[in-house]
Amino acid sequence: MTKFVIDCGVALQLASEGVEIPAEHELLAPTLLRSQTLSALHEAVHAGEIPPDVAVDRLTRVWAMPVRLLGDAVLRRRAWDVAEQLGWASTYDAEYVALTQLQADAFVTLDAELARRVEGIVPTAAIKALRTA
Fold it and tell me: Does the predicted model carry a pTM greater than 0.85?
């Protein structure tokens, strides 16, 4: 079994495409994924990028995904340390990196800049890795 940490952008992309994750993969994310997906979809509706019914459908799909959400004290501490190590003011991205360090084989993000910044810190994978066994 391959364990992947996915971020908000990946979760939303998978939801918009209706991708079924093969049983050979386990998806993980920090608990903040819930708030980030909710906010991203609400912002998209507010900006007129997608209709409300599409946003609600995608949100329902995200929440139905087989993603194990984690947010214990060990993860929070590691996220703090990662943010310090990388000189980041925010710990949001650091939670994804920390979770990958602690429990996963690779981090999947659509954010090319973030993937570049974590190069050598955690392994990354392309979203296509989630579609195949």
Answer: yes
